[in-house]
């Protein structure tokens, strides 16, 4: 058993007869009353996100997990196929268990989190940044803005990202997978 002081991003806990992954947390110590931890939990089975508040010192049941490297192979409807990079075994996961499936490029290596008790896959952790090529965007017109203006662009995986006006088709861009936002242009 863990307590609220052990809460950190990415921790998997058992709550309401389901396994949840902590995606955000905030320790709050108000002027009056006891401290508490405000959390945002994502169900690893359904993908549903809920907000929950734990009082300070509350006991939580953490789930022992293992991580393994897998290579993304291809999508098939709502199913995504992955291959273990060590023993080449393949697994199939639902789209809901991925944090940002629209940024997943074939051949990308991701970390799959497994429940250590029954060896079932819980969720997929993307790398912090991915590099994708812009396949379609409107040409940007210089001089018509006073601030950092953006325009929509479609990348090779089909995801739509807002990019600065100077990005053109064929450019490779670095994307933050957590926010799904443009970071920088990659020069070759």
From TrEMBL:
Pathway where it operates: Protein biosynthesis; polypeptide chain elongation
UniProt-recorded name of the protein: Elongation factor P
GO molecular function annotations of the record: translation elongation factor activity
Compartment annotation: Cytoplasm
Gene name for this UniProt entry: efp
Domain Elongation factor P C-terminal span(s) in chain numbering: 130-185
Family membership noted in the UniProt record: Belongs to the elongation factor P family.
SUPFAM superfamilies tied to this protein: Nucleic acid-binding proteins (SSF50249), Translation proteins SH3-like domain (SSF50104)
Biological function: Involved in peptide bond synthesis. Stimulates efficient translation and peptide-bond synthesis on native or reconstituted 70S ribosomes in vitro. Probably functions indirectly by altering the affinity of the ribosome for aminoacyl-tRNA, thus increasing their reactivity as acceptors for peptidyl transferase.
Pfam family, one: EFP
Major subcellular location class: cytoplasm
Alphabetically ordered keywords of this record: Cytoplasm, Elongation factor, Protein biosynthesis
Domain Translation elongation factor P/YeiP central, first and last residues per copy: 67-122
